[in-house]
């Protein structure tokens, strides 16, 4: 197949294994391929877009998943002298891909399984924020055998805003947050997550959180466990309908930088959220085994 995208010729033989099949992985492959240090990128399993890129990029059809299924890509990485593994989705990080490759001496761009649980469990992340005095909405978590208690908690109208948000604690492809407008809708949302298992095992634990209003931004950052390099703030539009209506999707588009994120706001994000998060991970011992 002829090359569709032109990339600079490689000046080193750095080989990268990129895990995932979404648009995120397509974008990562595109940018990584522009580095002169990179000679080859295997996208596993990749998608139609990455299949058309050509040049340094090729799809890799090897099944993998949670341990012990990492064995298949570990064997490939060893046989093909992979220098770096880049997981695109959150799930392999939560499943321990960083630790699996660390054992064989191949670095992974991503956190340890313990640190990744800040993304993998909303309940754990809320407890982490509370413990380390990081600003967050009021909340209470309930496990699958506490459905009755969760119902009574919602009926007690525990938040000053008079509304709550229902969140499946586990990973749900960005769709596990329900925003009811009434108590009746909140109870129905709770039932759909905890009883009807709308989000599968992700709903084994549920966070009932205070509803907050206002512009929302996302600020991602790079860190080695001490230094923090924030990226530009982004705004994600998740509702399926026009005018920000309807249920959440995995993301209907995002743009950056977000105009609402002034320098003052970004400074607060760094001081009040990012810095205490990295400090809290160190205090909790999550950086003892690996740099993030």
From TrEMBL:
GO MF annotations, alphabetized: ATP binding; metal ion binding; phosphoribosylamine-glycine ligase activity
Taxonomy, top ranks, is: Eukaryota, Fungi, Dikarya, Basidiomycota, Agaricomycotina
Q: Which PANTHER family does the entry mention? A: PHOSPHORIBOSYLAMINE--GLYCINE LIGASE (PTHR43472), PHOSPHORIBOSYLAMINE--GLYCINE LIGASE, CHLOROPLASTIC (PTHR43472:SF1)
Keyword Nucleotidyltransferase among record annotations: no
Q: In which pathway does it act?
A: Purine metabolism; IMP biosynthesis via de novo pathway; N(1)-(5-phospho-D-ribosyl)glycinamide from 5-phospho-alpha-D-ribose 1-diphosphate: step 2/2
Q: Which UniProt keywords apply?
A: ATP-binding, Ligase, Manganese, Metal-binding, Nucleotide-binding, Purine biosynthesis
Q: Which NCBIfam families match?
A: purD
Q: Report which superkingdom the organism of origin falls in.
A: Eukaryota
Q: What class of enzyme is it?
A: ligase
Gene3D superfamilies, per the entry: 3.40.50.20, ATP-grasp fold, A domain, ATP-grasp fold, B domain
A GO biological process of this protein is: purine nucleobase biosynthetic process
Record-linked InterPro entries: ATP-grasp, ATP_grasp_subdomain_1, PreATP-grasp_dom_sf, PRibGlycinamid_synth_ATP-grasp, PRibGlycinamide_synth, PRibGlycinamide_synth_N
Chloroplast: present as a keyword of the record?
no
Q: What is this protein called?
A: phosphoribosylamine--glycine ligase
Which residues are in the ATP-grasp domain? Answer: 126-225
Q: What is its EC number?
A: 6.3.4.13
């Amino acid at each position: 197949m002829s090359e569709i995208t032109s990339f600079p010729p490689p000046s080193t033989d750095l080989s990268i294994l990129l895990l995932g099949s979404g648009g995120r992985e397509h974008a990562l492959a595109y940018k990584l391929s522009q580095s002169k240090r990179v000679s080859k990128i295997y996208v596993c399993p990749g998608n139609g877009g990455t299949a058309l890129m050509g040049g340094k990029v090729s799809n890799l059809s090897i099944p993998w998943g949670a341990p012990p299924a990492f064995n298949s890509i570990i064997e490939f990485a060893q046989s093909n002298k992979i220098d770096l593994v880049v997981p695109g989705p959150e799930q392999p990080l939560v499943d321990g891909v960083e630790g699996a490759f660390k054992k064989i001496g191949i670095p992974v761009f991503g956190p340890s399984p313990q640190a990744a649980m800040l993304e993998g469990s909303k309940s754990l992340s809320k407890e982490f924020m509370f413990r380390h005095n990081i600003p967050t909405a009021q909340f209470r978590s309930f496990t699958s055998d506490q459905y009755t208690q969760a119902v009574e908690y919602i009926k007690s109208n525990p938040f000053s805003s008079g509304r709550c948000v229902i969140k499946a604690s586990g990973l749900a492809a960005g769709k596990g947050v329900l925003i009811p407008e009434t108590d009746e809708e909140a109870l129905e949302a709770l039932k759909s997550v905890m009883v009807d298992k709308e989000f599968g095992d992700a709903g084994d634990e549920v966070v009932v959180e205070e509803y907050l209003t206002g512009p929302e931004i996302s600020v991602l950052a790079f860190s080695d466990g001490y230094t923090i390099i924030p990226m530009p703030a982004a705004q994600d539009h998740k509702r399926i309908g026009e005018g920000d209506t309807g249920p959440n999707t995995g993301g209907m588009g995002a743009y950056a930088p977000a105009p609402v994120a002034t320098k003052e706001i970004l400074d607060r994000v760094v001081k009040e959220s990012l810095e205490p998060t990295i400090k809290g991970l160190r205090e909790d011992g999550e950086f003892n085994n690996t740099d993030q």
